[in-house]
């Protein structure tokens, strides 16, 4: 079990990411986009909220990107379970649109941030800088 706070890899300076997306076409596109970002390392993907909880425990990502269009009760429960870990990952909900009810449910589930999928390419890197300030060093 990993007891250190989850942070970007201090040697490579990359943030370890788990991607949770049930639509295989969207997952592939998201993984292709993330592969172009030198500051991130995708450590795995999951297609269901339950699989996300299991993989988060196994892979110890610093960040979990969760498609918030997954069945909402299960997505909320998976975020809460990931938050119970000794060194919980940061969680970002990805929204198809800026529907207030989806945003509200994501915030209520304890996510660290919400990004519209259409804004991911311009919003992700500034968000990583905010979630993982450069002064944070893993011990």
Number of strands: 5
Kindly report the CATH topology.
Rossmann fold
Overall average residue pLDDT: 83
Q: What is the rounded Rg? A: 14 Å
How helical, in percent, are the residues? 40-55%
User: Could you state the CATH homologous superfamily?
Assistant: Response regulator
Brief digest:
With 139 residues, the chain is an alpha/beta fold.
Explain the layout of strands and helices.
Elements: E1 15-20, H1 24-35, E2 40-46, H2 49-59, E3 63-67, H3 72-83, E4 90-95, H4 100-108, E5 113-116, H5 120-131
Parallel strand pairs: 1-2, 1-3, 3-4, 4-5
Helix pairs in contact: 2-3
Provide the descriptors you would attach to this structure in a database record.
139 residues; alpha/beta; Rossmann fold; five-stranded parallel beta sheet; disordered N terminus
Describe the protein:
This protein is of the alpha/beta class. It has a single domain (15-130), classed as Response regulator (Rossmann fold). 40% of the residues lie in helices and 20% in strands. The chain contains 5 helices and 5 strands. The chain has helices at residues 24-35, 49-59, 72-83, 100-108, 120-131, and strands spanning 15-20, 40-46, 63-67, 90-95, 113-116. It has a 5-stranded parallel β-sheet, sandwiched between helices. Strand 1 (15-20), helix 1 (24-35) and strand 2 (40-46) form a beta-alpha-beta unit. The radius of gyration is 14 Å and the shape is globular. It starts with 14 loop residues before the first strand and ends in an 8-residue tail after the last helix. Mean pLDDT is 83; it is low at 1-11.
